[in-house]
């Protein structure tokens, strides 16, 4: 039998310490959440670094994000695209969008990031003129994931990548725990795993990243 490593907090801390270092700018964006009374629900640095790596690997130039908050994940993504790349990020809260715009300006990325405010379900069908997107990151309402999945499939080419945050929901997907959100995430993961149009996998960065590549 080959050796496997246990999935412990120490292992996560070891990986994060080596590969997910937050610099001053990212730390300030994270801190801007508490300063402005926003929910402190940005992705972990470990997942930010992992998304950054995925964007680099896929050589993405055009990125779409659903769920901006204050722009923490947006900046991890934006730093991985070339200068002539474009990131469109969707946020329904006007307050979150205002803080995110301030953070993008302070980071010097406002020319590469287009923030659209509104309900993702309604905005996605209007994005055809900007398509195809090479890489999409989804971190908004979990009930919306199946709808976003269907809508995004029309906006990405063969080889396009989608990453969904919270695929493990604190680890409870693997336990006998039930409720509307956890059951929805489980069903969504199963649906993606069974979809013959894609290859997919979950990597346990942060709260779990479901990575999907369209065949
Ligand atoms: C978990 S936070 C995003 C965190 C961000 N990705 C980060 O790591 O920095 C989710 C965000 O999605 C937004 N959101 C939730 N449902 C949405 C919807 N239906 N359409 C657009 N935005 C939505 C929320 O207002 C919130 O700011």
How would you describe the overall organization of this protein?
Helix content is 39%, strand content 17%. With 215 residues, the protein is α/β, with parallel strands linked by helices. Strands 3-2-1-4-5-7-6 form a seven-stranded mixed beta sheet, sandwiched between helices. Helix 2 runs antiparallel to helix 5 and helix 3 (45-57) packs parallel to helix 4 (72-78). It is globular. The model has no long low-confidence stretch (mean pLDDT 96). The structure holds S-adenosylmethionine. S-adenosylmethionine is lined by residues 41-43, 67, 69, 72-73, 90-93, 96, 119-120, 139-141, 144. Residues 41-43, 67, 69, 72-73, 90-93, 96, 119-120, 139-141, 144 line the site of S-adenosylmethionine.
Short overview:
The protein has 215 residues and is α/β, with parallel strands linked by helices.
Span between termini:
32 Å
Strand content: 15-25%
Order of strands, widest sheet = 3-2-1-4-5-7-6
**Class by SSE composition:** alpha/beta
Overall body shape: globular
Q: Report the oligomer.
A: single chain
CATH architecture call:
3-Layer(aba) Sandwich
Top CATH class: Alpha Beta
Task: List the total number of helices.
Answer: 8
* Percent of residues in helices: 25-40%
Compute the number of structural domains.
Answer: 1
The biggest beta sheet is recorded as: 7 strands, mixed
Bound molecules: S-adenosylmethionine
């Amino acid at each position: 039998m080959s050796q496997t490593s246990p999935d412990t907090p120490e292992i996560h801390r070891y990986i994060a310490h080596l590969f997910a270092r937050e610099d001053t700018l990212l730390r300030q964006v994270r801190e801007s959440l508490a300063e402005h009374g926003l929910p402190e629900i940005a992705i972990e640095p470990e997942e930010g670094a992992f998304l950054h790596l995925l964007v680099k690997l896929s050589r993405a130039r055009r990125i779409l994000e659903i769920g901006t908050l204050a722009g923490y994940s947006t900046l991890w993504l934006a730093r991985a695209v070339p200068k002539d790349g474009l990131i469109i990020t969707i946020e329904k809260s006007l307050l979150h969008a205002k803080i995110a715009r301030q953070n993008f300006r302070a980071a010097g990325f406002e020319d590469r990031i287009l923030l659209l405010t509104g309900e993702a379900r309604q905005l996605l069908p209007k994005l055809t003129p900007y398509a195809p997107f090479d890489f999409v990151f989804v971190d908004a309402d979990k009930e919306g994931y199946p709808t976003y999945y269907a809508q995004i499939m029309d906006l990405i080419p063969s080889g396009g990548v989608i990453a969904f945050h919270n695929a493990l929901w604190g680890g409870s997907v693997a336990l006998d725990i039930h409720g509307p959100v956890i059951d929805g995430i489980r069903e969504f993961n199963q649906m993606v795993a069974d979809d013959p149009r894609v290859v997919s996998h979950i990597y346990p960065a942060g709260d779990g990243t479901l990575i999907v590549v369209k065949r």
